[in-house]
């Protein structure tokens, strides 16, 4: 009997310790989940505010462009006031967009630094990665549209892909699709070059040939032209008149360097 009592006397504290350990682990897990959910909600709320601010700026810019198309003598007093006030309003709202963007990025960075290490498979982590990826795509498109910088765009997307790979997750497919597209567009092909027609506007040329790198927009001897690099090291050129319309092109504007080995 004494032996049996001793066994129970030893086992009760052990079982109590195991129970206590499981309870603490469960509590810690619940706290972690609660933290993830709370931060995820904050990120979503901030991101929705950012998107709304961008939408407002886009609407203001569209209104301004429409007003500029109207002849001054046909503008109403209200339209004249809008035309006068909108540039300042747009600038202020763009600054607000920048603040909201920084807020979202800070929250995303803090969240992902924790979540990717502690809860990579949580739905909150997937949601945060999607927001980060969508913003990476937006930044990449801006780099191309404003500077024709396809390399920077690809690097931006690769950083986002790296977050997935570091946690052993399958990357967001639109990231990979965009990277493939930008890799193709950063070099002119003969097929796209042949689609450039006389009379095309600069915007129409960009839609076919891609956006030229900003340093490849040239003005020499009174002639405006854009250089487009080829994968073989050469470059094609598109020439524009004073009305910003294409009037000529050359596939071998810059011949590829010959490796004399």
Explain how this protein is built.
The chain folds into two domains: 40-185, no CATH class; 190-254, Nuclear Transport Factor 2, Chain: A (Roll). The protein contains seven helices and four strands; from the N terminus they run αααααααββββ. The protein is of the alpha+beta class and 261 residues long. A four-stranded antiparallel sheet has the order 1-2-3-4, covered by helices on one side. Helix 1 (2-68) runs antiparallel to helix 2 (77-118) and helix 3 (123-147) packs antiparallel against helix 4. The chain is 68% helix and 10% strand. Residues 1-16 have low confidence and may be disordered. Strand 2 and strand 3 (235-240) form a beta hairpin.
Based on Cα principal axes, name the global outline.
flat
Percent range of helical residues: 55-70%
Q: Strand arrangement, largest sheet?
A: 1-2-3-4
Q: How much of the sequence is in beta strands?
A: 5-15%
Unreliable spans are 1-16
CA-based gyration radius = 29 Å
**Number of helices, where a helix is a run of at least 4 consecutive DSSP H or I residues:** 7
Structural class of the helices, strands and pairings? alpha+beta
Number of domains: 2
Largest sheet: 4 strands, antiparallel
| H/E element sequence | HHHHHHHEEEE
Nearest-integer average pLDDT: 90
The strand count comes to 4
Measured between the Cα atoms of the first and last residue, the distance is: 94 Å
């Amino acid at each position: 009997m004494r032996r049996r009592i001793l066994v129970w006397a030893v086992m009760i504290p052990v079982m109590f310790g195991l129970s206590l350990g499981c309870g603490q682990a469960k509590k810690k897990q619940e706290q972690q989940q609660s933290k993830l959910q709370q931060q995820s909600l904050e990120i979503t709320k901030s991101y929705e505010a950012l998107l709304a601010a961008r939408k407002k700026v886009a609407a203001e810019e569209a209104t301004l462009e429409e007003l500029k198309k109207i002849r001054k003598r046909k503008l109403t007093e209200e339209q004249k006031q809008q035309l006068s006030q909108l540039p300042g309003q747009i600038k202020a709202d763009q600054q607000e967009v920048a603040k909201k963007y920084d807020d979202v990025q800070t929250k995303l960075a803090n969240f992902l630094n924790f979540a990717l290490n502690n809860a990579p498979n949580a739905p909150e982590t997937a949601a945060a990665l999607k927001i980060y990826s969508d913003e990476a795509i937006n930044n990449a498109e801006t780099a191309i549209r404003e500077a024709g910088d396809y390399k920077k765009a690809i690097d931006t997307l690769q950083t986002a892909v790296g977050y997935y790979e570091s946690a052993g997750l399958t990357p967001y497919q639109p990231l990979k699709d965009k990277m493939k597209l930008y890799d193709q567009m950063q070099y002119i092909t003969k097929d796209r070059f042949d689609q450039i027609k006389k009379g095309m506007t600069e915007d129409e040329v960009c839609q076919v040939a891609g956006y030229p790198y900003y340093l490849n927009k040239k003005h020499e001897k009174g002639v405006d032209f854009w250089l487009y690099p080829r994968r073989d090291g050469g470059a094609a050129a598109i020439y524009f008149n004073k009305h910003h319309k294409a009037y000529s092109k050359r596939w071998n504007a810059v011949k590829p360097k010959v490796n004399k080995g």
